[in-house]
Write a structure and sequence with these properties.
Blueprint: H1 2-6, H2 10-15, H3 34-43, H4 52-75, H5 84-91, H6 95-123
Length: 125
């Protein structure tokens, strides 16, 4: 029981400004998506300041999903490399994810074309 008193509280760990790491860079891992997840949770109907535990669980799920998809993508196509086509291949059976990825890829191409046209108009050829 005395050992528990020596450890800082949960709230103290979050407020120390270290970004999830202790002074030596060890311990808890840095939270990469907490700000974005909080905004998304609020947008989907959660409280404006959701519980930190809820955000942490969601972030763990997101990181696990990204890690698994990356490992799967690295094992197909060109070994050891992740390409867009590999991700599209992996999600092809999930209609919602597939449609979203197609939308994002289409938008990315449109933005590239718009930037190119803008640069050509400004800098002339």
């Amino acid at each position: 029981m005395a050992d528990e008193e020596d450890e800082p509280g949960f709230e103290e760990e979050l407020e120390d400004g270290s970004g999830g790491l202790d002074a030596a860079g060890h311990g808890r891992r840095k939270r990469l998506f907490s700000k974005e997840l909080r905004c998304m949770m609020y947008g989907f109907g959660d409280d404006q300041n959701p519980y930190t535990e809820s955000v942490d669980i969601l972030e763990d799920l997101v990181i696990e999903f990204i890690t698994e998809m990356t490992h799967k993508a690295m094992s197909i196509g060109r070994q050891g490399r992740v390409q867009v086509e590999d991700i599209v291949f992996l999600i092809r059976k999930d209609p919602r994810k597939f449609a979203r990825v197609k939308d994002l890829l289409t938008m990315n191409e449109e933005l590239k074309r718009a930037r190119k046209a803008f640069d050509e108009a400004n800098y002339g050829s």
